[in-house]
Amino acid sequence: MEIGQKVKVVRLRDRVSPPIVKRLGEVGTVLGYKVTDGSGVGVVVQFDDNSSTWFFEDELRVVQ
How many domains does the chain have? Predict the structure, then answer.
């Protein structure tokens, strides 16, 4: 995934807070990357309401 690409949240790997659960199925823009606790690299996604959070790559799908 590249910065600036549109991605859709397709699944959530872990238990997360209700505001993050609401992002399931939403489309956002990749802003950057985040080093996680040793289990890989996360992708920071910004949504239309200007909020952002990070996801694992396998939780996202690139959209055209």
Answer: 1
